[in-house]
């Protein structure tokens, strides 16, 4: 029996948006995440991010198009169940279906309009990454040279997400904005796909005080498989993920760690972890280093507990 997997970030929706010819339901070598690969590797829950490339980032109609594709190309397969509530999460597990969460990566397309935000919540989006790498109307991303924090409208967005029950995601957010969000947010927040800066100093990774803050407030950090965020020189072996895990655990994160692969958002891969069909290889490696209980928490239960606690009760 494969160990159940919960992955908090993939970008397959973006690939489907840009190339409608790609097939999620059948084996497709151009996609890291496909239904056959997910079934092969025992995925229990997958978070699907709505991400628009920078030249299209402001177009709300393409966010809606991504949701249309999510329904028509992904959920249309009976093996998946859309996760909007605590009940959905439970029912997916009971019926041995793959749970499918929907998230937004970068709020550019909302154009500061809270009606757009609320509409996405009503359509089932359950977490919101504030930025991609650069600045938008709400805040600066980690690659924006001025490294500023939130705008007034961006601060309003945090409050509105809190009020609705939309989970805030700090991956990609510049450090100043991170601390502003930490101060303002009344709810735990997540880093869906980021590693430890102390292990691999890269702007996309989290400093120790950020990791400690996420842990203290009850959030979860998704270890990501993006080779340059894992190790300085490529090719990157799977073993290089272990120091990130050990480091976050040393800061008290044993029950605040999960996976956030970034599959289909990457153009280079960790050796042996080239697509979503390979998770059990990683599980085997983890089992050599950690207890069975810790492995299960790391690859599934920590995210599952978090979402069980923070998804809406019902529609
Ligand atoms: Zn990303």
TrEMBL record:
Pfam families: Peptidase_M19 (PF01244). CDD domains: rDP_like (cd01301). GO terms for molecular function: metallodipeptidase activity. InterPro entries: Metal_Hydrolase, Pept_M19. GO terms for biological process: proteolysis. PANTHER family: DIPEPTIDASE, MICROSOMAL DIPEPTIDASE. This is Membrane dipeptidase. It comes from Paenibacillus thalictri. The lineage of its organism: Bacteria, Bacillati, Bacillota, Bacilli, Bacillales.
């Amino acid at each position: 029996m494969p160990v159940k997997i919960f992955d908090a970030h993939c970008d397959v929706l973006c690939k489907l948006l840009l190339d409608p010819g790609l097939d999620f339901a059948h084996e497709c070598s151009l996609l890291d995440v496909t239904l056959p690969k997910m079934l092969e590797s025992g995925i229990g829950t997958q978070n699907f991010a709505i991400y628009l490339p920078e030249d299209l980032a402001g177009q709300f109609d393409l966010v809606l198009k991504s949701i249309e594709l999510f329904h028509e190309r992904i959920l249309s397969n009976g093996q998946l169940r859309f996760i909007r509530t605590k009940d959905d999460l439970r029912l997916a597990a009971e019926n041995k279906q793959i749970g499918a969460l929907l998230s937004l990566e970068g709020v550019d397309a909302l154009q500061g309009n809270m009606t757009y935000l609320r509409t996405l919540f009503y359509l089932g989006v359950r977490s919101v990454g504030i930025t991609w790498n650069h600045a938008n109307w709400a805040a600066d991303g980690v690659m924006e040279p001025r490294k500023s924090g939130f705008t007034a409208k961006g601060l309003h967005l945090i409050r509105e997400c809190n009020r609705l029950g939309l989970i805030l995601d700090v991956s990609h957010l510049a450090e100043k904005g991170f601390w502003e969000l930490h101060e303002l947010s009344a709810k735990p927040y997540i880093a869906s796909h980021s590693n430890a800066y102390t292990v691999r100093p890269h702007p996309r990774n989290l400093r120790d005080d950020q990791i400690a803050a996420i842990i203290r407030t009850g959030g979860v950090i998704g270890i990501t498989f993006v080779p340059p965020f894992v190790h300085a020189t490529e090719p990157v072996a799977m073993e290089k993920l272990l120091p990130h895990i050990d480091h976050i655990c040393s800061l008290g994160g044993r029950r605040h760690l999960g996976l956030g692969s970034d599959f289909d958002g990457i153009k280079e891969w960790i050796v042996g972890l080239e697509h979503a069909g390979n998770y059990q290889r990683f599980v085997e490696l983890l089992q050599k280093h950690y207890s069975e209980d810790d492995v299960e928490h790391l690859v599934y239960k920590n995210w599952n507990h978090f979402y069980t606690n923070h998804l809406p009760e019902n529609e």
